Amino acid sequence: MTNRRDETGRRSAPSGGSAAANAASVGAMSGEGPPRAANSAPSGGSAAANAASVGALSPPQFASDNNAGICPEAWRALEAANAGHAPGYGADEWTRAASAAIERAFETACEVFFVFNGTAANSLALAAICRSTDAIVCHAMAHINVDECGAPGFMSGGAKLLTLEAPHAKLTPEAVIAAAITPHDEHSSRPRALALTQATELGTVYTPAEIAALCEAAHARRMLVQMDGARFANAVAFLGCAPADLTWRAGVDVLCLGGTKNGLPGGEAIVFFDRDLADEFARRRKQAGQLASKMRFLAAPWLGVLEDGAWLRHAAHANAMAQRLARGLEAIPQARLLAPVEANGVFVDLPKHAIDALHADGWHFYAFVGDTGVRLMCAWDTPADAVDRLLADLRAALARPPGARVPA
Fold it and tell me: How deeply is 374 buried, as exposed, middle or buried, from its count of CB atoms within 10 A (0-12, 13-18, 19+)?
């Protein structure tokens, strides 16, 4: 398996709408008076021209949902939070309101901590439930194993990963039970945490019953359960269930709730459903350099997307574009889907010459499983015409003999 780092991209987001009005009321709660509109960037001149030229280089792509811009609801909340002054380090009304919005979304009291990115969220959450001598059971394709540069071990002071293989990147209770042993007493690490990913690294989704069975197996062996929810919203949108059904009601102890891949500018939320596990976590976050001084700018976008359900609408759109892409690929004999398409990612095996031709045509995506198993990610703003153009270019590439020159 090959996992490639996501490339960067920029775009501007629109403003206006009811979310801004609601966000403005939060600013008024802070005692600073009504928020003023943030200063707009000057128009005209070389700066605007340069910005336009950069934007012209960034059409919709399929490399990563990280590459999409900020969604309108998050942008408006961020702009509203930019008015006036507010207390730092999370003592502001924006952070309190965003935390309360997460509690409402999950229908329970919980402890919420905002951090800058997903690697920090996963690693710090796992460090909170593991000793340095413990082990973390996870899938071999898990982000914590493949793409976090040993951060869980670093943040926990030495906890090791016990990786398991299972079809479609989904763990099973049987596999977890087999791994949840300490074979050499004090000479080996004790399995202490089960790390799940929802949606998985192959775009598949655990059902509430599957999560409950995994949590039951883990808890019976004195293991706690952490969930990497970088694309949690996509899983909820696919299943049409309550967020609580996929987390605390099923037995998940701590969730790393992702927003960056779903239209936020940055910032993930660590959600402790077992509130006792959050003891001293504030200091752990600070020690790791993840306590934002201007916390409201991490928190406000969450309020923007949660208050009217935008986080699930955007996830549903990304999922729908992935389904559109999958249907088109299923009609192409040379394309073979590698996993069920249940979230916003499509994993497909393509002939090497077709992959090369698509790259030559300007399409950006990564090989993910071997050299020819590619990952095509849809985002909250992926347009249907981009999906159709990619499919058309793929059909054209496959119609040419391998090695044929691409027409100018």
Answer: buried
The predicted structure's pLDDT at residue 289: 97
Report d(CA 355, CA 300) in Å as an integer.
Answer: 40
* pTM for this entry: 0.87
- Residue 55 pLDDT grade (very low, low, confident, very high; cuts 50, 70, 90): low
Q: Which two tokens stand for residue 319?
A: 């999922």
Q: How far apart are CA 327 and CA 308, in angstroms?
A: 30
Same domain, 119 and 238: yes
Query: Which residue, chain included where needed, has tokens 């926990």?
Result: 156
| pLDDT at residue 58, rounded to an integer | 76
The number of beta carbons lying within 10 Å of the beta carbon of residue 221 is: 17
- The upper half-sphere exposure of residue 108, i.e. CA atoms within 13 Å in the direction of its Cβ, equals 19
Q: What is the CATH number of the domain that holds 324?
A: 3.90.1150.10
Residue-range definition of the domain harbouring residue 324: 310-397
269 lies in the same domain as 354: no
| pLDDT at 245 > cutoff 60 | yes
Q: How far apart are CA 284 and CA 128, in angstroms?
A: 8
